[in-house]
Amino acid sequence: MNLLHQIFIEPFAFMGEAPDLLLQVLWEGFVSGILYALIALGFVLIFKASGVFNFAQGIMVVFAALTLVGFHAMGVPAILALALAIGVMFLLAVTVERVVLRPLVNQPDIILFMATFGITYFLIGFGELIFGGEPKQMITSELMLPEGRTSFDMAGGFVTIQHIDIAAAVIAVIMIATLGVFFSKTRIGRGLRAVADSHKAALSVGISLNQIWVIVWFAAGIVALVTGIMWGARSDVSFALQIIALKALPVLILGGFTSIPGAIVGGLIIGFGEKLAEFYWGPIVGGGIESWFAYVIALLFLVFRPQGLFGEKIIERI
Predict the structure, then answer these.
(1) Is 301 left (phi over 0), alpha (psi -120 to 50) or beta?
(2) Using one digit for the tens of pLDDT, what is the confidence trace for 63-81?
(3) Which residues cross the membrane (predicted)?
(4) Angle CA(132)–CA(134)–CA(139) in degrees, nearest 5?
(5) Which of 101, 55, 102, 63 is closest to 222 using CA atoms?
């Protein structure tokens, strides 16, 4: 009875007693959720173009951020280093299309999926060779990103908001909205959906797989760079960031692998859910809920709604 009281009564009573803490947790959940959605967007773009989950998206976040910091460490001004990092992600997109994807057109999805594993471990090895394995500090002030914090008198207490979190949320929302409109309203977006349905059919109507794949991988690279900057500004830039990036997998399972709105909703569900669970229910189980909460929610969705909230049901006739 006491355990049931701890699980179902005490957390909600605590929320009512300290609404300022609840607002603080919700804000942190919102920022994490929108950044998870941004990471998931990179996965969605590539999945929509190839029908394959890109396992390399996580390390692309790390590699892009390390490239930016590495250029600046060589004495390159921050804005120029940002432009060069974007150029590197474009070269990566072209290289992946020429060396990996082009020879694998019309191959089974599992072959393309395994190819993304190869890209992942190549980028890990190449990144460690060029940049080393130690954590790096993000060039937050050099990029003119805000620092510091502001406390607001709210709900009978104080809510503290990091300025970088505000910037991260605003930039992520703008990028998600821009890419969503671009890939849903433009000719390239329609071509992307055609490629996802069938490589052969897309080729038969004159759609260039090569061009679409370069555009999509480059867009995913830009998303990875922005994500790496924002996560790196909140902590450090290290190879451990790829673990955070893979949190996008539960987000995709919740929202659906082909849905941009699903990535947003799924990211927010995971962001809010894991922060609330860690703060209010974490003490009951000794903490650590934040590390596994998203995967438990994803498992429940796989059992009861495997297509996700916004995914399309696939009906096969036999």
Answers:
(1) alpha
(2) 999 999 999 999 999 999 9
(3) 25-47, 59-90, 110-131, 152-183, 212-232, 244-273, 279-304
(4) 95
(5) 63
